[in-house]
Amino acid sequence: MKKSAALYLSAREASAELAISPATLYAYVSRGLIRSEPSSDSRSHRYRAEDVRLLKQRRTPSPEPRGLRSFDADLPVMDSAIATITEDGPIYRGVNCIELAEKDTLEHAATLLWDVAGVDPFSQDNWPLISGERRAVADAARHAAPIDRTIAVLALAASADPRAFTRAAEGRAMVGGRILRLVVATMLNGSSSGEPLHLQIARAWAPDNKHAADLIRRALVLLADHELNASTFTVRCAASTGLNLYDAIIAGLVALKGPKHGGAGVLAAQLVKTLVNGDVAPIIRERVALGERFAGFGHGVYKHGDPRAHALLQALSRSGAPQKLTREIPERIAEATGEFVNIDYALAVLVHTLGLMPGNELVLFAMARTVGWIAHACEQLRHGGLIRPRARYIGPAPGRSPALMRP
User: Fold this and answer.
1) Does the N-terminal or the C-terminal CB of the chain have fewer CB atoms within 10 Å?
2) Distance (Å) of CA 255 to CA 78, 250, 315, 379
3) Could you give the angle at the alpha carbon of 99 between the alpha carbons of 94 and 100, nearest 5°?
4) Phi, psi of 84 (to 5 degrees)
5) DSSP labels, 149-205
6) Known catalytic residue: 45?
């Protein structure tokens, strides 16, 4: 089966998935609920699998209270040409990121996600502009956490960049290049360089490990975007108010710090530290018996395992990482819990294998995801609409507040 097949269903498959007749399927298409396009033979049509499954979720009652569900089908759904998620891995503008990570760099992934052709955001003359105030803040925050330091620096960076508010698509891409270089340099406590970003990171973090550069390169590409997760939606909301790209990235960094999002990598690192030198089976058995969760396992989107995690763990295994980490632990936890490995665990194994400082899982995540945030902020700014969801009020009816009923 072709890789693109996972994105589409035939009329028969779509009808069976929804338990409807072909006539009803065509009605859904005419109402814009399911996207359809001619198949390669031009004699039939194919239907977007994600639209079919989203519609199926909307028609199926959930056992959880409305508004409390993870990945609730009633939450905002937005059109985007940037990326989508499939069981074969995220698709970056039609390109599977698993395949992209085999050979490409974060910079190339950025030009793809930003849809750039006419300019080079990473040219040798496109450098972050440095003001005295920004330099002073960076120096004062040298010992702060990398993400906190970067937030502080970005807060002053827009005022130093006279083209920060450009509305031209190519101009925004050039601003994006300057932001990405600034983010990486600030998180590394270094200076901006024209050297490929993964080489800069490897030299700063693991200069003596011959596999570090390639492993970091792969991880950066795999993490560049993941559709509308919490931080990306936060970025789009912020950008929809008309913010410049620098300020929009601050919104993403703040959201990423949460333990249910990017911070999950830190929790997965603690799990790796617990299991790496111990007897795996009894530790897992005890935690399962106590009802404890395993950070780095389970995913609200990938029900059969995160393809990004599999790709990175395979690369780690080829580079000599312990099989205990790359195969035994994921297999035993999946067997004991039914939950499969995700990218947070793979990142934790990467950091452990390279001997990096704890917490660098989140830093690497933030560097990579900056690319996706810039793509989504640019798309939102181009559309120009303000994101303003409505709340479903579930409080007391007017005149029935408990406070008004007290004697």
Assistant:
1) C
2) 19, 9, 29, 19
3) 75
4) -145, 170
5) HHHHHHHHHHHH-TTTT--SHHHHHHHHHHHHHHHHHHHTTS---SS-HHHHHHHHH
6) no
pLDDT reading at 68 higher than 60: no
Candidates 312, 345, 343; CA nearest to 217 is 312
- Distance, CA of 76 to CA of 57 (rounded, Å): 14
**Do you know the residue count of the chain?**
407
Instruction: Convert the pLDDT of each residue in 93-140 to its tens digit.
Output: 999 999 999 999 999 999 999 999 999 999 999 999 888 898 999 999
At 5, the pLDDT band (50, 70, 90 cuts) reads: low
Structural contact between residues 294 and 333, judged by C-beta atoms closer than 8 angstroms:
yes
pTM over cut 0.85: no
Looking at 226, 261, 299, 352, which residue is catalytic? 299
The one catalytic residue in 51, 225, 247, 344 is 344
Two tokens, residue 278 = 């111990």
Adjacent-strand bridge partners of 260 = none
| Average pLDDT of the chain to the nearest whole number | 89
Residue showing tokens 């001619």: 38
Any catalytic annotation for residue 299?
A: yes
